[in-house]
């Protein structure tokens, strides 16, 4: 094979230098954006740490000095907090009666040690009710990175990898880019240059895709900052993304690593920490406890992930599959209830580069054939699993809501057992605490490691039981990893229409009734897919003894919800209730012991009321005005540091729900420009909401066209 001509080499080097420049630009802009976050984070962390030290009793100094420090004289002189000791001048302390040089040095050294540890471990809390300039500055800096989207980590890794290789190869290839240099170069140098040219050509094989990935991320990073009001609204909607990024950039470990690691035995925890976790095919960063959970599943091969509701079991499973596929696995299989199948498909393709196949519905045979041929992640339901032949190439089987198979005699349980017998790696996921159902838990363990319990009985000590199940079971509770959690977690629950839902929706579209279209998913309550998912969410909250508030724009939807739940509910709150009666309903809801459900019209319960008792919020349908959702969520979001709020928004794919979200997202840039120009828009978030009449006409028109084409 003849070496490339000097002209070909020059063209290749020109393309390589252009790609190298793009890669450098992205790295520089990303580092600048990260530096802005850290610059904004410092003052806030110091301020909040000082507040914590100001509330910390001076007696904590005795803990640091193992009780050797005498603090009585300090307390009598008014130095009652750690911060007061920290701020005192040395001579002020030393002149106190009973405080000598040694005591003064010990006290201030202990205070400095506590202050340093507090600042290092401080997780900044963003309070939506305290929108000061420093916090707004931090949100604007975070928004720059969050707005780029999930491709930013991959784009940064690609830029670093490609840039590093090109910086090394371009100088090596230069000698054959000019006929005179080629002539004057020795044979060894020419051979080295030719090898470098070959490697550059290989790197540029996907030049268009690589440049597009890098250039898009760079362009997004260079966008002008939004108005502060928009940054706050975006934070309320995507708080989990902001807190994920904040935790990553803060580089903070959980205050109790043992709790974050599920109190596993030391040797097992160490082995799990050493497990590699490839993020090449993953598009989202993991929190510390999530990365540990994924490593646990990889290291132990056949496990149950039993994290508390809302801690991200799905993303941990996706991280496991992404790692395995990056290391050579070709096929994975997820089994889940039909109600969450759409969520799984969306999460896999949003959070990773893996292709997801829906083995459910009319096209399941075609999807199954495509999955077998091309590889990726197949997602099926419990009802559909028994129809699939066991595929030996499956590298991992993920079983969501695994408590569905606790009855070993059921058909779905037998189907899962058959796959477990043939697949080397299995990940069961369930939020049901093992302490409540030991026998059912034992049944789940037997799928994975029969006989693991040995002689351990249900009435043995919890410690003995925990030791027995440690190799197969990992659970983290909400309160154990609270420093790793956002104050607000948004989860979109995509539920497909049932046949009855679809018929009601088509009729509403045909008649052009926009409001009827919005609530068509509840037209036949006994066959409503959304209501079925709502009941599941309420049942999960009831198990955890959490209070729930259900919002809808429509009274008849709330009536259907109340009837579907069966048990007594509070409300509904509506505009027809006098203010004092509204507060009476809220007081009764708050005073109820344990789990309770409150129904509220979103335009009533979302404004001017405090619902701190609720930690689970369910929104029955997307709202025309995004601020209406934000205000409703903010009623429960006030719980702040006590418990994070989970927000579940019920949505239906291939319906006006999807169209409404698309239109509202497309208006984000218009919002940005409008808010910067108008003081009225800055002070009135509702100013950006689109005319309901215009929106209704657009959606009805588009849905008629789509259904007619279908």
Automatic annotation (TrEMBL):
EC?
3.6.4.-
InterPro entries assigned:
Helicase_ATP-bd, Helicase_C-like, SNF2/RAD54-like_C, SNF2_N
Where does the Helicase ATP-binding domain start and stop, copy by copy?
294-451
Start and end residues of each Helicase C-terminal domain:
533-696
Q: Name one GO molecular function term.
A: helicase activity
Q: Which keywords does the record carry?
A: ATP-binding, Helicase, Hydrolase, Nucleotide-binding
Matching entries from PROSITE patterns are given as:
HELICASE_ATP_BIND_1, HELICASE_CTER
Q: Which domain of life is it from?
A: Bacteria
Name of the protein in its database record:
DEAD/DEAH box helicase
Q: Which organism is it from?
A: Nonomuraea harbinensis
